[in-house]
């Protein structure tokens, strides 16, 4: 049985748990056997945080929560459980109390903001023909096509849901900045990461989809966090 903490991976907007596929392979190579990727509904921060808490409560022993994109807001809201030993943010939102992902983005809009469009039911989509250039410009056209077709749209109202009590004020934190991110402005990532005073900040020359385009580097940061929390 591994002495390492269990790693729980939380996806963000416009993707599901499978967005972590390459990072999962790299983490397994590094010796991590306790791996879970939660599938959150993207219907509200409360719903998404509660789904994450339910998974964490099923796990005996320490857990490292990892959030990509909006998943960072989810682990910020859900990460106060006693067995959560650390938080890792991958090109992610890390709002403070009273802040929302939408509010942070409006203050400094990312390059691809114009490529997001609502449907008649209130879900927000990245325009399929703009997905590659917006979300994952450093992946192949084929990979981007699959991501565009399988994108998981959030309810637009989720963008405005505020954090209540940010777990990063109580838990050890690690953060990866994507310098070529077109979905969360890199300057917003730097602002959020620096104010958390993380154990480590890694900046990668990567798109928003760094978990897929730089899986070794992303896995290395998660591995470092897990071993530190062991």
For the largest beta-sheet, the strand count, sense and barrel status come to: 6 strands, parallel
Q: What integer is the average pLDDT?
A: 97
Q: Structural class of the secondary elements?
A: alpha/beta
- Read across the widest sheet, the strand sequence of neighbours is 2-1-3-4-7-8
What is the number of independent domains?
1
Beta-strand level of the residues, as a percent range? 15-25%
CATH evolutionary superfamily: Alpha/Beta hydrolase fold, catalytic domain
CATH topology: Rossmann fold
Radius of gyration: 16 Å
Would you mind describing this structure in some detail?
It comes from Mesorhizobium hungaricum. One of its GO terms (molecular function) is hydrolase activity. InterPro entries: AB_hydrolase_1 (IPR000073), AB_hydrolase_fold (IPR029058), Sec-Metab_Biosynth_Hydrolase (IPR052897). Keywords: Hydrolase. The chain has nine helices and eight strands. By secondary structure, it is of the alpha/beta class. The strands form two sheets. Strands 2-1-3-4-7-8 form a six-stranded parallel beta sheet, sandwiched between helices. Strands 5-6 form a two-stranded antiparallel sheet. A hairpin with a 5-residue loop joins strand 5 (about 115-120) and strand 6. Helix 1 crosses helix 9 and helix 2 crosses helix 3 (about 70-80). The longest helix has 15 residues, at about 215-230.
In a nutshell, what does this entry contain?
By secondary structure, the chain is α/β, with parallel strands linked by helices. The protein has a single domain (6-229), classed as Alpha/Beta hydrolase fold, catalytic domain (Rossmann fold, 3-Layer(aba) Sandwich). The protein has helices at 21-29, 45-57, 71-78, 101-107, 131-135, 141-149, 186-196, 210-213, 215-229; strands at residues 6-10, 35-38, 63-68, 84-90, 116-118, 124-126, 173-178, 200-204.
